[in-house]
Amino acid sequence: MSGLTLIETYKTDLKKYSPEQLRYQPAAGAWSVNQVYDHVIVVAHEYLDRVEACATLKTKQNSGKTDFGAQLFTRGGFPPIKIKLPDELNTPPSNTDSKEFLLIRLNELSARMKRLRGTAAESNPEYKIRHGGFGWLNAQEWYDLIGMHFRHHTRQLEDINLKIR
């Protein structure tokens, strides 16, 4: 399922939550639905920034992916495990957005992805920017990573939904 299709699914699913359910954290330190949405939106924009940056590069990068990055792209997604980021990268996402504002943000993300879809596809695949965990990625790979990341957090949302009041 593409990133754009997943965004539409996230938008549809968003409608079923009350404001209280949206912000409900099932355990201390666990994320709410709101925080998952905030996280995937923020990260997707960061990945799209990399798509744009790759498109402006003029120097080829011969370096490749890390072993984990190569496995990720071969598999087409993250393994079904929880991934713990280092503390300095693990600031809790916002838990304050309304459904309406999350919907606006998802629509803005979708529009930006549509605008940059061609840029990602047409960029030189040898123009790459380094991802801290996955190695050197080109514009198309950064773009594809958005859908993988949304799919990865779908499992987290399913877990939250089982515990939601």
TrEMBL record:
Taxonomic lineage of the native organism: Bacteria, Bacillati, Bacillota, Bacilli, Bacillales
This protein's name: DinB family protein
Source species, domain of life: Bacteria
Domain DinB-like, chain residue ranges per copy: 14-157
Family matches, as InterPro entries: DinB-like, DinB/YfiT-like
Stretches of the chain forming a coiled coil according to its record: none
A Pfam family it matches: DinB_2
Species this chain originates from: Jeotgalibacillus terrae
